[in-house]
Amino acid sequence: MIEVLSQNVEKPELDWEKVERWIVEVAQRLGRRVGALTYIFCDDERILEVNRQFLNHDYYTDIITFDNTTGRLIRGDMFISLDTVATNADSVEATYDEELMRVIIHGVLHLCGINDKGPGEREIMEAHENEALKLWREAYVSHKDI
User: What does the alpha-carbon distance between residue 95 and residue 65 come to, in Å, rounded to a whole number?
Assistant: First the structure.
């Protein structure tokens, strides 16, 4: 269901089975089913290249989500810049791991139909991210990991 790739960086060392169960639960809570998801972890230069090539945007970003969702079945490819994740973690005073998990679920939330560009949408997205991260901490992170 989830494929994890990397370009110019090491893949994050996560328990991907737990991450997958978490993603499935978040999607189910939003009335969706999870199909094929691909995470491509990369550096800033690669995400800038993808942003320019596919979106005609000339800036760095933490995630670019390519949505292949059909009906309630979410599918897509998500490029995540680990460089920008680290920079953002510092700027919002979060740990790198917290920010990484936020970005991982952010792409899934986009595939579930939650947007963050229009009026009031950013706050809705943040509320869903926070709820998903709370679920991650409470149900999927063992206390020995903390």
Answer: 23
* Assigned domain for 146 exists: no
Pairing of strands 63-67, 73-81: antiparallel
Number of domains in the chain: 1
The tokens for 120 are 């009031």
Which of 79, 72, 75 has its CA nearest to residue 42?
A: 79
Beta bridge partners of 65: 78
The whole-angstrom separation of Cα 30 and Cα 84 is 28
Q: 37-68 pLDDT, tens per residue?
A: 999 999 999 999 999 999 999 999 999 999 99
Tens-digit pLDDT profile for residues 83-131: 999 999 999 999 999 999 999 999 999 999 999 988 999 999 999 999 9
CATH of the domain at 98: 3.40.390.30
Question: Biggest alpha carbon distance in the chain?
Answer: 44
- With H, G, I as helix, E, B as strand and everything else as coil, classify residue 100: helix
The predicted model scores a pTM of 0.94
- Phi then psi for residue 115, to 5 deg, are -105, 170
What's the CA dihedral at 100, 106, 109, 115 to 10 degrees? 180
